[in-house]
């Protein structure tokens, strides 16, 4: 498995690395090279399943999967939750047809240039550090779930309470106190070249915990499918 890391997210035109993961959706391993020469790939790199926004974004990715498959685009969701814990979660929350894999060491996040941000009290140097004072000015909206736009920390706490999500020792195992792993989606063509992306790094943190734009993704998928 590649451990090379870069200090900014991969951009359109960049070659994605080959990474080998422990599969969640089936037995064995899943490698990015499995898709090269066969199909374009949407890869979603998420935090652990203890992140309520990531759980929702994975479910949304599963809902988009049939439409992407019609265009010949495969999808892979990667969580930094240990494989057994993730398998248990998805047994109760199925993501039918979506490839899923575990990366508790965050190898893929580093290789795709998604940083681990230090959480501070009031010092922001995006995307290396972010102050909680800045986080409290950010807004994320989940109509029908949150009472209105809320900052990611408060909104996440409320969603976890609503979900009754029980944080286990396996979840705690991948937590890095005082830090937050940034996440994102990358659309690769058949040659493994990035053609589109949506990450939390851009927009000075305003993308934190936000969902991607489905129309934008499907437009990009139509382009790579030809």
Automatic annotation (TrEMBL):
Domain Thioredoxin: 10-226
InterPro entries registered for this protein in UniProt: AhpC/TSA, Thioredoxin-like_sf, Thioredoxin_domain
One Gene Ontology molecular-function label: antioxidant activity
SUPFAM superfamilies, alphabetized: Thioredoxin-like (SSF52833)
The name this protein goes by in its record: Peroxiredoxin
Lineage: Bacteria, Pseudomonadati, Pseudomonadota, Alphaproteobacteria, Hyphomicrobiales
């Amino acid at each position: 498995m590649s451990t090379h890391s870069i200090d900014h997210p991969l951009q359109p035109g960049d070659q994605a690395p080959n990474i080998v993961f422990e599969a969640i959706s089936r037995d064995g391993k899943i490698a990015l090279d499995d898709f090269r020469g066969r199909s374009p790939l949407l890869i979603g790199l998420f935090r652990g399943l203890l992140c309520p926004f990531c759980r929702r974004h994975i479910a949304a990715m599963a809902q988009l999967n049939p439409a992407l498959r019609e265009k010949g685009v495969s999808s892979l969701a990667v969580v930094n939750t240990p494989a057994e814990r993730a398998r248990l979660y998805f047994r109760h929350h199925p993501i039918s047809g979506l490839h899923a894999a575990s990366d508790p060491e965050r190898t893929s996040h580093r290789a795709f240039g998604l940083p681990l941000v230090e959480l501070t009290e009031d010092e922001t140097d995006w995307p290396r550090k972010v102050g909680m004072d800045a986080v409290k000015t950010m807004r994320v909206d989940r109509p029908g779930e949150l009472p209105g736009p809320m900052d990611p920390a408060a909104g996440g706490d409320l969603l976890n309470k609503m979900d009754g999500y029980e944080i286990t020792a396996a979840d705690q195992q991948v937590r890095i106190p005082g830090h937050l792993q940034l996440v994102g989606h990358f659309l690769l063509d058949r040659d493994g070249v990035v053609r589109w992306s949506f990450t939390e790094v851009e927009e000075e943190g305003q993308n934190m915990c936000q969902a991607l734009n489905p129309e934008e993704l499907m437009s990009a998928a139509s382009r790579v499918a030809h």
